[in-house]
Amino acid sequence: MRVVVCGAGIAGLSLAWWLERAGWEVLVVERAPEQRGAGYLIDFFGPGYDAVERMGLLPRVRERAQRVAGVRYRDPTGRVTGTIPYSSFLRLQRGRVVTMMRGELENILFEALGPGVEFRYSTSVDAVTTTDDHVAVTLTTGEVERADLLVGADGVHSRVRGLAFGPERRFLRHLGYHTAAYLFTDPAIAARLDDHLEMLEAPGLQAGVCRLDGDRCAAVFAHRAPADSLPQDARARLRERYADLGWLLPEVLDHCPEPSRLYYDEVAQIETASWTRPRVVLLGDACQAVSLLAGQGAAMAVAGACVLAEELLRDGDAVAAPLRYEARVRPAIVRKQRAGRRTADWFVPATRARLRLRTAVLRLAAAPGLTGLLSPVLTTPADRLNSLRPPR
C-alpha cells in the first residue's frame, strides 16, 4: 500500500509513523523548505497524550516539557490581577498533561520516523485525479505520484482540501480574533521572568510572554479583529494594536521579527460536510481545526492520525477506512469546536465588565477545593470520548 501525505506537521508526521511501521510506502510532501520546529507553547493532554504513550514516545515528550508554574494575568500597567496555578490544571487532567513548544512535539515525531518515509520539501499538490483503484497526485514539481490514498494534512489553509473539496471560504469560520507568535532571545527580559506564563490584558486583546531555556523567550498575542482583515504588514499591526500595554511589552515588541518570519493568522475553525472523498481524506487542522484559543489542536491531530491509521490497518481499504475514521472522530471535534466558540470570550474578554468577571472567577478558583470552577474552560467533552483512544 502507498500513501501520499501532504503536510509534514504534527498530523502528517503522526500518520507517517503508524503507516511506515506497518509496511506502507509513505511519501510526505511539504511546501516549506525544511522542517520548521518552531511554533508556540501548547498544553498537550487528552487523547493525544494517550496516543503518544501508545507510540512509546511519551518519555521523549516529557523530557522536552517546558517548566510552567502557572498563568499570571496582569493589567496594562503590569499589576497582577489573577493567577491559575499549573497544579490546578494537573489535577483536572490527573497529571496526564505536558506543556511544551509545539515545534518540539513536531521534532519528536520527525526523529521517531523510520527510513521508509520519503520527504520532498518545497513541494505541494497541484492536481488530484482519482479512479476506482488509485489516486494520481500531480505535484508542484510536475511529477505525478500514484498511490492508494492521498491525505491532506496541510493545515487550516489546506491545498488538498481546496482541490478535492472546494474553496476555503466555504469551510472557514472566523471566530473574530487574530493571533501571532514568535521566539526571541533577550537576557534582560529573561531575567525578569520566572516560570509563569505572563498574560497582559485589556478589553479585546491579550499578550503573553514566558521564559524558555536560557535567555530564550516566547511571545504570543490574540486580539479581536473582523473577518477578512489580515494585515499586509503583520509586525506593524502588532505594534499598533498593543501600543497601550506596558510592563515588559514594549521591549518584547522590539523583538518582533520581519513579517515573513512572524506567525500571524486569523483564529478560525474548519467545518466541512465531509472529511473524505474516494481515496482522499483530510486530517488535522485541514478538517478539524478547533482554533488556537480552544486549544488541543496538536493533541487532536495526533489522536486523529492514530484513529485513521487504525482503520487503514484494519483491512487496508483506502476507501472505506477513511469513512470509519471520520465517523469515530468527527463527533468529538464538533463538540470541541462548539466549546471553543463558547469559551473564546473567556480567554480574550471583549469588555471591561467581562474582564473583571473573569478576574473574580480566577481569584475564587485559586482557593483550596475550588479548582473545579475552571473545568468548563480547561476541559471539554471531547477530552473524555473513548472514540479517540489509540488502538489496542
Automatic annotation (TrEMBL):
InterPro entries: FAD-bd, FAD/NAD-bd_sf, FAD_aromatic-hydroxylase. One of its GO terms (molecular function) is FAD binding. Pfam families: FAD_binding_3. It comes from Thermobifida halotolerans. Gene3D superfamilies: D-Amino Acid Oxidase, subunit A, domain 2, FAD/NAD(P)-binding domain. This is FAD-dependent oxidoreductase.
